[in-house]
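Homework-ish question, so no full write-ups if that breaks the rules, but can someone show me the predicted structure for this set?
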Amino acid sequence: MNTAYYIGIDIGGTKILAAVATPEGRILARAKRKTLPPDPARAADPLALAQRIAQTAQDALAKAGLDAGAIRAAGVGAPGPTNIHTGRVLNAVNLPGWQEGFDLGPVLSEMLGLPVLVDNDVNVGLLGEATYGATRDFDDVVGLFVGTGLGGAILLGGRLRRGFRWGAGEVGHTYLYWPGKKPREIEKVASRGAISKKLAKAVRQGKSPIVAELLAQRKDDRITSGVIRRALAAGDPVTRKAVAQAQEALAVLIASITNFLDPQAFVLGGGLVESLGEPFLEPIRERARALMFVRERVEEVQILPASLGDDAGVLGGVALAIEQTRP
Amino acid sequence: MNTAYYIGIDIGGTKILAAVATPEGRILARAKRKTLPPDPARAADPLALAQRIAQTAQDALAKAGLDAGAIRAAGVGAPGPTNIHTGRVLNAVNLPGWQEGFDLGPVLSEMLGLPVLVDNDVNVGLLGEATYGATRDFDDVVGLFVGTGLGGAILLGGRLRRGFRWGAGEVGHTYLYWPGKKPREIEKVASRGAISKKLAKAVRQGKSPIVAELLAQRKDDRITSGVIRRALAAGDPVTRKAVAQAQEALAVLIASITNFLDPQAFVLGGGLVESLGEPFLEPIRERARALMFVRERVEEVQILPASLGDDAGVLGGVALAIEQTRP
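A: Not a homework solution, just the prediction itself:
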């Protein structure tokens, strides 16, 4: 039988995505489902979530007109640190029932009747971009994903750096330190979540009528990346300041990582980067290069936007499955 | 002829050290010489410095009762970023005549009649500790060397990480950032040089009578690591605060690097660490572990003092020569 295809699965806080693809990254079919079940009574059952993931993969298979026999392996991005040898998600703070860890690899493998490889979602997203996307020409790449938090992943010599306790890449937990101050984590400044929190406070205090008006129009008080983009366009000074601080923190981080690791490329993704685009990225690029210590070939340090969008996770799952099942 | 031995050379800002050693790191003979020539007129001649380095190596050879025919290769630690493929020191800001770069490898190879491998001194020092010293049991090691500045080097999978522009390991140029403040480099806080500068200012302003008295006793106004150690022992509050800020900055750096790269071990060396010893290191170790994001096996992250002292450079040179001439 021809087992030429792979399944990639991306487990997010709100939705599960699955895709069937060729080794070259051509997607044959997609499926998606909400992460949390409609029945809240089942939300805390760790097996119920695994079943929803398996069903999403089977939906994608059915849409592709294939059965499991046509699939070589499935690769999964999970929202938490993961032991890729055992397939155990060590903890997934945002998923009810998985906070204490869950043996996703073996459980899903049993459900699907396939080899299943699991890694954390940020590693998998970077693997997608590095194999099929923005940085496919580079072997040493640091990925920074700016969303609710700030996620990171590191590819060195074409291999993901996972760390001796599966803890590498947690770049959102890089500390900002200033003599006399208590250290705080960079994602408290450089994330969509941090910006939203500042804007919500400004709205409550009546300091940002522009954002208040945008929220009133949407009849929804969630400050999404889209709201931030529109508030910037409307010239809101509170938003401008919060975004500028996030940009400066990211530029400093990129320069510090360059001084430490000297990689060829950075890829920046996540909801905020996708929404704000090049006007957000260009000042970061310029400022980061200005702060780099070694000046030789500084213009060759690539700082690129992610190019796969929502497909980074599922294609990264495909790349993970290929990487880990290669003979 | 038996070419069983190696020469290791360590070029510092004040002295050149050379040693002849076995591949196992047993030193047969040592030699040293001041880096800058007695005749200031020759100080800016880049070749004059190379000749002094070659003479120091030849002194060590003569003391060992050997000639160049008994040596397989020489390895050199140079005080600046270095292209190890060409042996070119890209710049050595503290060495007259070498600020614009110098082809040390080829020049020294010609002078000594031997293969000569060159890397920057911090890489070479870490290679010494990782091959023969404190971290010889670990494959993933970050070295932090606290002296005039803060030097760093990274060993991953047993290999030095050099970076695509030969710029990796410049950890002293990690930026401290705080929203609303201008980024500054961590070595402006976490180095012997930074502490000395603060104490010199305090002495000028009459705010540290203890340090003033220590300097008067020495009849020398250089605030060395030894002066800092004695000022701490005498309970000087200015010294205590400056050292505590350096410790906090180093702990935050170690925690941030752990969150990013998750290496098994850190080795801390340099004049300040050697002088202050375990009372300096233990609070850093405890604080860094408390700040690490992944809590699993956090007590297994090693934070060790360098163990080779002044020999780290020459033994690192030997390890470099072995690494780079291995068939």
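Now go work out the reasoning yourself. Hint: Chain A touches chain B through 51 residues (CB under 8 Å).
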